[in-house]
Amino acid sequence: MSFWRVFSSTVAAFFGVQTEQNRQKDFQSQSPLPFIIMGIILAIGLVISLILIVNQVLN
User: Fold this and answer.
1) Handedness of CA 49, 52, 56, 58 (dihedral sign)
2) Nearest to residue 25, comparing CAs of 12, 38, 40?
3) What is the Cα gyration radius of the chain?
4) Residue 17 CA: distances (Å) to CA of 22, 46, 49, 55
5) φ, ψ for residue 30, nearest 5 deg
6) Number of Cβ atoms within 10 Å of the Cβ of 35
7) 9, 27, 50, 56: most buried, per Cβ within 10 A?
8) Does the CA dihedral 46-49-51-57 come out positive or negative?
9) What is the Cα–Cα distance from 49 to 56, expressed in whole angstroms?
10) What is the pLDDT of residues 5-38, one digit of tens each?
11) Is pLDDT above 90 for 40?
12) Cβ-based neighbour number of residue 10 at 10 Å
């Protein structure tokens, strides 16, 4: 699977807007590892973004 396919699928699932058809395609992939890694990266990015936004608001 391409990077962009994994990225877009993970972002859609992250926000709960993944279609059933795309979800089925994702579960047919050979390894869940790319989705797990991308999910961890996106979660870390979300936390860092929230920290930066809160710090900007509080200053």
Assistant:
1) positive
2) 12
3) 14
4) 10, 17, 21, 29
5) -75, -35
6) 18
7) 9
8) negative
9) 11
10) 899 999 998 888 888 888 888 888 888 899 999 9
11) yes
12) 22
Question: Nearest 5 degrees, angle CA 33-CA 44-CA 10?
Answer: 45
First to last CA, the chain: 43
Token look-up 């390894």 returns 31
Going by the DSSP 8-state scheme, the letter that residue 59 receives in this structure is -
Q: Name the amino acid, one letter, at 14.
A: F
Q: Return the pLDDT at 44.
A: 97
pTM, 2 dp: 0.79
Per the document, the length of the chain is: 59
